[in-house]
Amino acid sequence: MRNAPVALVTGANRGIGFEIAKGLVAAGYAVLIGARSAERATEAAALLGEQARGLHLDVTDPESIAASANHIRADFGRLDVLVQNAAIAAAAGRSFANGEALAAAHRPSVVSLAEMREVWDTNVFGVLAVYQAMVPILKDTPGSRIVNVSSGMGSLTLASDKSQPVRQFFDAAYSGSKTALNALTVAMAIELEPFGIKVNAVSPGHTRTRLTGFSGTDTPAQGAEEAIRLALTEADGPTGGFTHALMGTLPW
Question: Could you list the residue ranges forming a coiled coil in this record (predicted)?
Fold first, then answer.
């Protein structure tokens, strides 16, 4: 495991994150399964075999993030791929019957500031915190990659088009957080371009996961395809992009 390229996937104990980890294991990577629960991270890693290892990583906890970075530096000395997948659609303990109900609760005029902060804390500030902790290791690893798992729901272009069905679901909390994540992706790509580090955002599509209430049209494995492809991109591959496996480049 120590001689293999190393990947860290956040929020990887289930759903799309688990499928991304599974794909990277199949590609020969030593994969760290990041999860808020150490027990669930270990259980998920056991399902993927000896090339996977559970890692307690809560993207909203600075101590957890720092400990994870120290662990990666000490045990592996490298980080070839960082996939930022951890995300939430609503505050802890809140569930909605469908996307319409979620959007209605998160309209700018009614969304709880506390709930919006909680969603953004994971989906935006958590991503930035993990990036800042891991980027020194990524810079020391030739040809490293970052993939941020975004959503087509974060596209301002699509949300501004009255002919697009996603327009009615654009909300301040979840959709807005993915718009901010896209902005972070571009900023990261610009910053890391001189170091040859590729940074891209991907949309998994409408996937059957816990986040969507298992109402999606695609499987988690299908949702993971584009993240896996960009994690494995060659040195001349794209950077600063926003793509979907079947739809190609998405508008910002």
Answer: none
> What distance in Å separates the CA atoms of residue 28 and residue 43, rounded to the nearest whole number?
20
Which CB contacts under 8 angstroms, 24+ apart, belong to 35-38? 35/11, 37/13
Q: What tokens appear for 33 in the block? A: 């399964």
Classify 202 as helix, strand or coil. Answer: strand
User: What are the angstrom distances between the C-alpha of 80 and each of 87, 88, 116, 178?
Assistant: 22, 25, 32, 24
In whole angstroms, give the CA distance from residue 237 to residue 34: 26
- Which DSSP state fits 53? E
Q: What is the DSSP letter of 195?
A: G
Distances (CA, A) of 192 to 59, 188, 249: 21, 6, 21
Distance of CA 177 to the CA centre of its chain: 12
pLDDT tens, 53-92?
Answer: 999 999 999 999 999 999 999 999 999 999 999 999 998 8
Catalytic status, residue 174: yes
Distance CA 23, CA 61 (A): 27
Q: 152 with 203: CB under 8 angstroms?
A: yes
Q: Which residues pair with 42 in a beta bridge?
A: none
- Considering 174, 203, 208, 228, which one is annotated as catalytic? 174
Which residues face 53 on adjacent strands? 32
Q: Looking at the domain that runs over 6-249, which CATH code has it been given?
A: 3.40.50.720
| Structural tokens at position 246 | 């079947």
pLDDT above 80 (res 128): yes
